[in-house]
Amino acid sequence: MTYALYILLFPLFAGSLVGIFGKPLRALPSQLLTTLGVAISFILSAILFYQFIFLNHAPINQVLYSWAVADQLHLNIGFMIDRLSVMMALVVTFVSLLVHIYSFGYMYDDPSKQRFFSYISLFTFMMLALIFANNFLLLFFGWEGVGLMSYLLIGFWFQKDSANAASMKAFLVNRIADFLFLVGIAGVFAYTHSLEFSQAFIAAPSLAQTSITLFGHPASVLTVLCLLIFCGAMGKSAQMPLHVWLPESMEGPTPISALIHAATMVTAGIYLVARLSPMYQLSPTALSVVMIIGATSALFMGILGLVQTDIKRVVAYSTLSQLGYMMAGAGASAYAASIFHLFTHACFKALLFLAAGSVIIALHHEQDMRKMGGLARKLPITYITFLCGALALIALPPTSGFYSKDSIIDAVQQLNAVGSSYTYWCLTLGVFITALYTFRCFFLVFHTPTRVDDPAHVHETSSTMWIPLIILAIPSLALGYLLFKPLIIDSPSWFGNSIVANHAALQTAAAMALDSLSHLPFWLMLAGVFTAWLCYVRFPKLPTWFATRLSLIYIVLVDKYGFDRLNDFVFVKGTRKLSQFFFAIVDVKVIDEGAVHGSGKLIAYLSQWARKLQSGYLYQYVLVMILGLLVLLFWQI
Amino acid sequence: MNIVDFHILLPEILVLAMAALVLVIGLFSGRKQSSISYTLSQISLLISVVFVWNQIGMPTLYALHNMFILDAATTLSKLMILICAIFSLAYAKPFFNENPEKTHDYCLLFLFSVSGMMMLVSSNHLIPMYLSLELLSLPLYALVTIQRTGMNAEAGMKYFAMGAFASALLLYGISLVYGATASLSLSTIANSLQLLQTQYSTMALIGLVFIVAGLAFKFGAAPFHQWSPDIYQGAPTPVITLLGSAPKIAVLIMAIRLFSQSFVTFAAHWQMIWIAVAIASMALGNIAAIIQNNLRRMLAYSSIAHMGYMLLGFVTQTPGGNAAALFYVFAYALMTLAGFGALIVASNQGFEVENIEDLRGLNSRSPWIAFMILIVMFSLAGIPPSVGFFAKVGVLEAVMSVHMTWLAVLALIFAIIGCYYYIRVVKAMYFEPVEDASPLYSSWGGKVILSLNSLIILLLGIFPSSLIDLCRAVYFS
Question: What is the pLDDT at residue A492?
Fold first, then answer.
């Protein structure tokens, strides 16, 4: 318990200290302080991990203190420490620590290092609060907290208009999602009179039986609640159609993209579904929705990665696609596989982002892949580590991605639910697409004739940047092999009772995964790599030929299926029109002139009058007192 | 006086004895060793805290022929009064440095006033109540005029004249009640009032109204409030830190004891009167504060408004309401201390913070002090997470629990109006440019005290339940 508290408090303390005293503290001590805070958190997480996983410590579900009580509404701060949260905390602190170290190099020439480090430390705190929460309140606090930090960090370079626009977009999209999430939480409270997870889990079976009428259709309360909560998860984990903010979030510094928009925050939605698995498990409808949305995101977001020219955007769309895989896995009740993929993805995607960042720094903030090429020799370490990440991403056996992704695909294949065959095909085709865009990016950056403006000046980045790359490359390759048995095959697995585990299905899936060489995804993956080689190394004219021949598809893809256009047209323009009406009529006329200025004038007038009352003359004061006394006397008698 | 009485009265006796000691030392020591009396006074307050601390958890005890009472309410409020006094005296340190010749007088009067507050809290009889109220007030009149310059003298004169008038009202009220009931002890008044005939009942009721007027003056509640803006503006700032905080606690305890114990028969009457006073205070305080440019006048009107909110808890006549009022007054005392303390700390040689414009751009000159003032202003406005928020929530909840929704709504409207002038200060500090952006140098001592004070406000906002539970324990037994 105390460990968990300290895990949270160290980043909070370091982050706020640097945030407040950053200026007098200077850059280097601030960086060291925050890094130290996260390092301690990481060590403590490792200790907790050891205690819970290997020493079989019983789960702790404890209220730390009661913040406020109003009738039945208990606003408690409480921790749920079990195997799931402990493992999650370990991953988060691990990636966060490496990103802290990496940022020493990446932010080397940035003038506001203190602000940056303070933000990422506070982000780590918020994320940990989200993970350790034992009730919806603290979860929502962390949820909004990471959202806020993400907003601040996307707009970190606030001099750039595009960064401001991107941060605003991220904030607004998440606001829509979080609003529905909040409605879901309110619903949970309305039906269970408690915000605790444990109470919600106890009430879940009866809620599944209760039905309410919604827009004229009867619906199970549990399904409605699960779907509302899932809306929150969709926003944070950027599932279609709420994905539009994630690609734009790449305006932030690259370490942020690695930490927040790949490894930790965006996976909060998956974590949420897994954490609430006792609820989701009882609602087949909600599960199918989760699965279908996940699968759709997995395939169609991957396809978008094919036409991007910005190296970070490719990785961003890849993240969207991989999040889709996790969501689909969770929707297929394969929570274990989904969380497993979350862990491996955290490693290899952070690696890919950091490696991409290393390329960007080496090229002096150049992100366009059309101006790269032939960097393999110039940046050997980045090259090798990027390759490791790419192999893990395309799920080449026996890298980590292979184990986790194939577990999901096979679990879906085993499933017989609404939409499961659609999901299976989406995910399987997604493997081909993943391989294609990953190696397209890889070839364009590291092979092919160089298109760099000034190739002579390109050299490997500083050690604080490449050391994290190497540290991340190891788990990217090996983590799958190490965790596959304890997380997926063993029964009980490392997850214990922390999530609902569907062992029978998973174990068959596991058996299949082992001989996956004879399966479709493996060959599709190889086909993807081959196609990439064919198109971008062997016959570089091929993509252009395709683009002109299939211009319609190409335009649709470059337009990102028109989501932004649609949003712009319906929501932005529509809202503007509506706002214009409200502004011109309601705001200016009624509120401004009537209520605001009117009441302001009234109060200003009263205020003047009250001032006149205060004349400064003693006899008048006494007169007022006597008058007051007389009024009270005659009133009461 | 037997030994048990002595034990009960120990904290008061100590403060008085130390006051006498300071008097003697002041006579014999030179002007240069002015810090002796300051140190002695602080020590005596601290020891008194220890004595009061030891009285925690004692059963209800009486002393001096039932004139003096010791119960949970007295212990808790004495602790708070002493804490406020310690803070207030600490804020006065820069004043002592500038005016060493005033230190002895200041400390002496200060200790007398504090002992008056402590005795007022424990009075169980109208005569000691009146006497300790005078003991509380007389040194304050003198303290206000301690510098004898124009503003000070005018403020002190006004305060004295009006205070004398208010005590006359109070005394007249007491005499009427005595005439009707033939008793002065709080517990016997209640019994006699129940058995009164009609004509005597009217007499007692008139007495009650006079007592209300006298106490409302001490609270600084409308329409008996008009002294406060002038005095807050004219008096030396360290004096206001005392005048604005601890006496309100003492008077509230007294009022709760007096009205809910002795005047139960007239509960409906005094409830209406105090509601009227509360509404008038909230309305007048918040509205008049808006137009003020002078920070002290603004804070004076703010104090009038806050007294209105505090009274809301009191008028519900429930244990929960009394507890909420107690919590409110504690919170308010801390806030007003920090508010005026910040004025002291933000002022330095040659630069006196008087008007809101003087705080312009404070954030760029001294971010820490600006942040502390931000906490105080947010707390006064009742914005979470500060103790002011929970104080307001507490009284509003109490009002709602007795189904006076209209009153709660009214209070909320005035609270919203009130936000304007608090946030104006924050706006000036953070968003308005300043011509002279040189860093503000202030003494470390003052900064530490202010930070401690403000952080307590913040901390109690994050962990309010500890103090709320203590307050509730007083009235739920």
Answer: 65
Asked if residue A301 is part of any domain, the answer here is no
Q: Decide if pLDDT at A602 tops 80.
A: no
Test the B interface: residue of A629, A630, A631, A635 with most B CBs within 10 Å = A629
pTM above 0.80, yes or no: no
pLDDT at A416: 76
Number of domains in chain B: 1
- On whether residue A29 sits in a domain, the answer given is no
B384-389 long-range contacts (CB < 8 A, ≥24 apart) are B384/B461, B385/B458, B385/B461, B385/B462, B386/B457, B386/B458, B386/B460, B386/B461, B387/B331, B387/B334, B387/B335, B387/B457, B387/B458, B387/B460, B387/B461, B387/B464, B387/B467, B388/B331, B388/B332, B388/B335, B388/B457, B388/B461, B389/B461
Are residues A396 and A365 part of one domain? yes
| pLDDT band at residue B456 using 50, 70 and 90 as cut-offs | very high
Chain A residues in contact with B272 (beta carbon < 8 A): 635-636
From chain A, the residues in CB contact with B230 under 8 A are 614, 616
- A543 and A398 within one domain: yes
CA distance A349 to A330: 19
pLDDT of residue B373: 92
pLDDT exceeds 60 at position A513: no
Read off the pLDDT band of A503 (50, 70, 90).
low
Residues of B near A (Cβ–Cβ under 8 Å) read: 157-158, 161-162, 165-166, 169, 202, 205-206, 209-210, 212-213, 217, 222-224, 226-227, 229-230, 269, 272-273, 276, 284, 287-288, 290-291, 390, 397, 417, 463-465
* pLDDT bracket for residue B80 (50, 70, 90): very high
Residue A67 lies in a domain: no
Instruction: Read off the pLDDT of residues A86-121 as tens digits, 9 standing for 90 and up.
Output: 888 888 888 888 888 888 877 777 778 888 888 888
Q: What percent of chain B has pLDDT over 70?
A: 97
A150 touches A51 (CB < 8 A): no
Domain that holds residue A483: 283-295+313-551
Asked which of A122-136, A514-528, B10-24 is least confident by mean pLDDT, the reply is A514-528
- Domain edge (last residue) among A524, A551, A578: A551
Number of folded domains in chain A?
2
For residue B177 the two structure tokens come to 């009640």
- The pLDDT of residue A269 is 87
B361: in domain: yes
Question: B276, A633: Cβ pair inside 8 Å?
Answer: no
Classify residue B408: in a domain, yes or no: yes
Return the higher-pLDDT residue of A86 and B281. B281
User: Does residue A331 sit in the same domain as residue A442?
Assistant: yes
Judge if A452 and A398 occupy the same domain: yes
Q: Which residue has the higher pLDDT, B81 or A29?
A: B81
Instruction: Tell if the CB–CB gap between A610 and B161 is shorter than 8 Å.
Output: no
pLDDT at A232 over 60: yes
Give a yes or no: residue A453 inside a domain.
yes
Q: Is the pLDDT of residue A439 over 80?
A: yes
Looking at the structure, tell me whether residues A476 and A574 fall in a common domain: no
Q: Count CB-CB contacts under 10 A for residue B428.
A: 22
Of A551, A574, A607, which closes a domain? Answer: A551
The string of DSSP letters for B37-103 reads HHHHHHHHHHHHHHHHHHTTTPPPEEETTTTEEE-HHHHHHHHHHHHHHHHHHHHTHHHHHH-GGGH
Residues A472 and A595 in one domain: no
Q: What is the DSSP string of A472-502?
A: HHHHHHHHHHHHHIIIIISSS-TTTTSS---
Instruction: Give me the domain span that covers residue B448.
Output: 263-477
A614 vs chain B: nearest CA distance in angstroms? 7
Residue B370 inside a domain? The answer is yes
Is residue B132 in some structural domain?
A: no
Same domain, A366 and A513: yes
Same-domain status, A493 and A568: no
> Taking CB atoms and an 8 Å limit, are A633 and B212 in contact across chains?
no
Search chain B and give the residue with CA nearest A618.
B158
For an interface test with A, the pick among B226, B291, B297, B389 (most A C-beta atoms closer than 10 Å) comes out as B226
